[in-house]
Design a protein that fits this description.
mainly alpha, rod-shaped, 122 residues, 0% strand
């Protein structure tokens, strides 16, 4: 699963999420609007190109992480199925196990044991 990576939030993850949640770049200023108003469109083209490049990089990174998570989920699901199968096997073995109930149970340990020393078994 994820090459042994720890899954969890880092200690500063909450701060990062709150900062991202409250991020507000605001509307462009009047001077920024004039820069892309047609008199100098180069800045607008550069901005668009950089945003497109960043967006594609983000999408590729997100897709890679999503594939890793989905792979981990598939492995986890397979392990859970194996555990359920083992549980079923154990339950079946226990259901077919014969336990003698004709002899009364005793709280006294028997006098003999495999080592011959005292009351060690009931």
């Amino acid at each position: 699963m994820a090459g042994g990576k720890r899954i969890g939030a880092s200690s500063d993850a909450g701060d990062e999420v709150r900062a991202l949640r409250s991020y507000d770049p605001g509307a462009p200023s009047e001077s920024e609007m004039q820069v892309v108003s047609g008199t100098d469109a180069a800045a607008g083209r550069i901005y668009r190109s950089q945003m497109q490049t960043a967006g594609l990089a983000f999408f590729a990174d997100f897709s890679r992480h999503l594939r890793e998570i989905q792979s981990d989920c598939e492995a986890s699901a397979a392990m859970i199925e194996e555990m359920h199968a083992l549980d079923d096997e154990i339950a079946s073995a226990l259901r077919h196990m014969e336990v003698p109930v004709d002899a009364p149970a005793s709280s006294e340990a028997s006098e003999s044991s495999s080592t011959g020393g005292g009351k060690t078994s009931w």
